[in-house]
């Protein structure tokens, strides 16, 4: 029975990486390995709890959908829990200790944020603003942005170069 379960485990294990990919959890995520191990344990638990393992290809497919959804839900629950507790951590911020604005370190080569948001932002063409929002605020990949904006990936690479040129011009002025 155990070797039979191992065969099913080996068959469904690659699905774990598909679940993580669908949730945009990549290898560089700080909890990636933990999530993989948790998913493996859950997959094994679910296979052990299954009364009769599938015999036909259709039954395997149906079980795969069930396992995929259960693993996905568990990972989402874990991520929600981590985010819930992450907000309760006190982080030392030295700027809070500064009493006056004059205490801030002066760096004349870096303009104020207000200037950037009002002046430089207005200087960017709308398509570059859209690209910047998608990459910074929503942290979308080039492929996801291309799909959402109905443009090619090559167009987005061109936009990225244009944005870099704008930033370089801004730094030199």
UniProtKB/TrEMBL annotation:
<dbReference type="InterPro" id="IPR014284">
    <property type="entry name" value="RNA_pol_sigma-70_dom"/>
</dbReference>
<dbReference type="GO" id="GO:0003677">
    <property type="term" value="F:DNA binding"/>
</dbReference>
<dbReference type="GO" id="GO:0006352">
    <property type="term" value="P:DNA-templated transcription initiation"/>
</dbReference>
<dbReference type="GO" id="GO:0004803">
    <property type="term" value="F:transposase activity"/>
</dbReference>
<dbReference type="Pfam" id="PF01527">
    <property type="entry name" value="HTH_Tnp_1"/>
</dbReference>
<dbReference type="InterPro" id="IPR013325">
    <property type="entry name" value="RNA_pol_sigma_r2"/>
</dbReference>
<dbReference type="GO" id="GO:0006313">
    <property type="term" value="P:DNA transposition"/>
</dbReference>
<dbReference type="GO" id="GO:0003700">
    <property type="term" value="F:DNA-binding transcription factor activity"/>
</dbReference>
<dbReference type="InterPro" id="IPR002514">
    <property type="entry name" value="Transposase_8"/>
</dbReference>
<dbReference type="InterPro" id="IPR013324">
    <property type="entry name" value="RNA_pol_sigma_r3/r4-like"/>
</dbReference>
<protein>
    <submittedName>
        <fullName>Sigma-70 family RNA polymerase sigma factor</fullName>
    </submittedName>
</protein>
């Amino acid at each position: 029975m155990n070797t039979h379960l191992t065969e099913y485990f080996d068959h469904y294990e690659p699905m774990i990486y598909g679940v993580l990919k669908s949730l945009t959890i990549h290898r560089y995520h700080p909890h990636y390995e933990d999530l993989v191990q948790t998913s493996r344990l859950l997959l094994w638990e679910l296979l052990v709890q299954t009364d009769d393992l599938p015999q036909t290809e259709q039954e395997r497919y149906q079980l795969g959908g069930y396992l995929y959804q259960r693993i996905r839900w568990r990972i989402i629950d874990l991520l929600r829990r981590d985010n819930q507790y992450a907000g309760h951590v006190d982080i030392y911020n030295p700027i809070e200790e500064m009493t006056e604005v004059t205490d801030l370190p002066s760096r004349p080569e870096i303009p104020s944020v207000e200037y950037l948001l009002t002046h430089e932002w207005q200087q960017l063409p709308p398509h570059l603003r859209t690209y910047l929002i998608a990459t910074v605020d929503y942290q979308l990949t080039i492929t996801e942005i291309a799909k959402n904006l109905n443009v090619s990936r090559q167009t987005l690479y061109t936009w990225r170069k244009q944005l870099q040129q704008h930033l370089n011009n801004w730094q030199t002025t």
